[in-house]
């Protein structure tokens, strides 16, 4: 049969099943457990248990500490990845609620490892987000999210970023020189908000506010059609109140 199946019964690999049972048994003990205890709890022969434990330790899924086995880096990485997915889903849901209340597309972004990273964005067909027609990472100078993040960086980090991603005109409304950008960033720091009008995408206006997530530079942002420019400041003020109430806590959970 195709896909290694016979009839309705898939082909199962016993050694994989036994290894997974051992991992589950280890996970049931916060401080780890010795091999003999794990063998008893899983019903596996002791020689088989030792063999699987050695293999799992070699591959980084377990490590031995003071005679007991605990999760290793590889297993912990899987757990962290699952936690990040759950956290991203949580903030996506929170942004969706905010977007419906504000009547705007809403974004959460961080500056991580030298790059602008849009972590979550609403996906409402009635209020679609800005299309990333030029890489957000290389055009931080041209959009509100990037300007808000750059304003939070120290001088050396910001200079290094602009050296890697020199300014370029994205639309006729884009800032043209680094001096223009630095003046804009001074305003962003002073007013704690970045406003951008069609500098990244024609027909769209945006704003972004800094949020406190430990040492990381982070931002919440909104975008509106250009004909709704008159709403931008009031929507931004409402976003700030939402951030103070709930969104910052969620943002912090997925930025670390």
Plain-language structure description:
It comes from Streptomyces endophytica. It holds the Pfam family IclR_C. Keywords: DNA-binding, Transcription, Transcription regulation. It contains 8 helices and 9 strands. It has helices at 14-27, 35-42, 46-58, 73-102, 144-152, 155-164, 178-191, 232-255; strands at residues 5-6, 9-10, 62-65, 68-71, 105-112, 115-121, 194-197, 204-213, 216-225. A 5-stranded antiparallel β-sheet has the order 6-5-9-8-7, with helices on both faces. Strands 1-2 form a two-stranded antiparallel sheet. Strands 3-4 form a two-stranded antiparallel ribbon. Strand 7 and strand 8 (204-213) form a beta hairpin. Helix 1 (14-27) crosses helix 2, helix 1 (14-27) crosses helix 3 (46-58) and helix 2 (35-42) crosses helix 3 (46-58). It is elongated and about 70 Å long. The two termini are 46 Å apart.
In short:
With 256 residues, the chain is α+β, with helices and mostly antiparallel strands. The chain has eight helices and nine strands. The strands form three sheets. The chain has a five-stranded antiparallel sheet, sandwiched between helices.
Pick out its properties:
256 residues; alpha+beta; five-stranded antiparallel beta sheet; two-stranded antiparallel ribbon; 8 helices; 48% helix; elongated
């Amino acid at each position: 049969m195709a896909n290694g199946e016979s009839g309705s019964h898939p082909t199962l690999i016993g050694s994989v099943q036994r290894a997974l049972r051992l991992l589950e048994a280890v996970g049931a003990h916060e401080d780890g457990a010795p091999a003999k205890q794990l063998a008893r709890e899983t019903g596996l022969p002791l020689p088989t248990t030792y063999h699987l434990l050695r293999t799992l330790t070699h591959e980084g899924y377990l490590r031995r500490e003071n005679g007991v086995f605990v999760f290793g880096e590889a297993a912990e990485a899987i757990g962290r990845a699952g936690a990040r997915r759950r956290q991203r889903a949580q903030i996506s849901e929170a942004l969706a609620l905010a977007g419906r209340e504000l009547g705007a597309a809403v974004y959460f972004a961080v500056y991580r490892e030298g790059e602008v990273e849009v972590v979550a964005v609403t996906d409402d067909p009635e209020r679609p987000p800005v299309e990333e027609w030029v890489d957000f990472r290389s055009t931080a100078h041209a959009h509100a999210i990037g300007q808000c993040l750059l304003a939070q960086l120290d001088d050396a980090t910001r200079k290094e970023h602009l050296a890697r991603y020199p300014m370029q005109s994205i639309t006729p409304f884009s800032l043209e020189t680094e001096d223009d950008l630095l003046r804009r960033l001074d305003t962003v720091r002073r007013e704690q908000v970045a406003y951008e009008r069609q500098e990244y995408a024609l027909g769209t206006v945006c704003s972004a506010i800094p949020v406190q997530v430990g040492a990381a530079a982070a931002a919440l942002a909104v975008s509106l059609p250009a004909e709704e420019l008159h709403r931008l400041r009031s929507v931004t003020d409402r976003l700030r109140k939402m951030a103070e109430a709930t969104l910052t806590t969620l943002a912090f959970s997925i930025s670390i």
